[in-house]
Amino acid sequence: MEYTDDTLFDGLLLCQQHKNGYRFSVDAVLVAHFCKPRAEDSVLDIGCGCGIVGLVLCYRYPQLKVTGLELQPKLARLARMNCSANGFQQRFTVQEGDVRQIQDVVAPEAFDMVVSNPPYRPVGSGRINQEDECALARHELTANLQSVVQGAAFAVRNRGVVVCIYPADRLATLLTRMEAHRLTPKRLQPVYSYPEDTRARLVMVEAVKNGGPGVRLLPPFYIYTCPNGPYSQEMLALYKD
């Protein structure tokens, strides 16, 4: 298995990735910064992949404790390698397991925050190699939105926080699933490709388990300055702060 060496925060955070397998995208960087944990919270990352969300959180919050849940053994092993490479192995552990049987891996209501960048694409949206690392991470082959939300609701404590990033055109489905599991949306931010884009591409949602009414709609976030253009200053800042 070949790897690439990637960095964030001006080279202070290291992240190896499989050269020809699943590689994280801006979605993971966005949702990691959207999370607002308290200093000593315990966080579960469902479907942690190479560990990028947990790595960013550990870097930004030096007292935070993170557990990554990952179904694919090769990605779980890679996430552990990245924990060690950054000196986070005492604060960031990785468990191999299936979110559909999350009760076999973690205790109920054991975490202050649960974060996930779940598979976006329904089965049937294009040709899929079911043994492919990328397909398993991006398509709802093993984990779908229902299982991720249900797993998050199981793992997060009462009044704890669940954070997701998801396609904006599937927002209604996400909110419906959350409400069905007593996860009340409290913060919501649409993500656009660039300022002149006519519709949001992604949405980031923070929900509270058994939370009260009231949701805060945040200003749009723009990834690029223009079509096919460079990253916006806001996006660049996420790789440096």
In short:
The chain has 241 residues and is an alpha/beta fold. The chain is built from 7 helices and 11 strands. The chain has a single domain (3-238), classed as 3-Layer(aba) Sandwich (Rossmann fold), CATH 3.40.50.150.
- Percent helix among the residues? 25-40%
CATH class: Alpha Beta
Summed up, the helix count is 7
The low-pLDDT segments are 135-140
> Can you give the mean pLDDT?
92
What is the name of the CATH superfamily? Vaccinia Virus protein VP39
Question: If you compute it from the alpha carbons, what radius of gyration comes out, rounded to the nearest whole angstrom?
Answer: 17 Å
Shape: globular
Cα(first) to Cα(last) distance is 31 Å
Commentary on this structure:
With 241 residues, the protein is an alpha/beta fold. 27% of the residues lie in helices and 28% in strands. It contains seven helices and eleven strands. Helix 1 packs parallel to helix 2. The chain is globular. The relative contact order is 0.14. About 2% of the residues have low confidence.
Secondary structure: elements and pairs:
Layout: E1 3-8, E2 13-18, H1 26-34, E3 42-46, H2 52-60, E4 65-70, H3 73-85, E5 92-96, E6 111-116, H4 133-138, H5 145-155, E7 156-167, H6 171-180, E8 183-192, E9 202-209, E10 216-217, E11 221-222, H7 233-238
Parallel strand pairs: 3-4, 3-6, 4-5, 6-7, 8-10, 8-11
Antiparallel strand pairs: 1-2, 7-9, 8-9
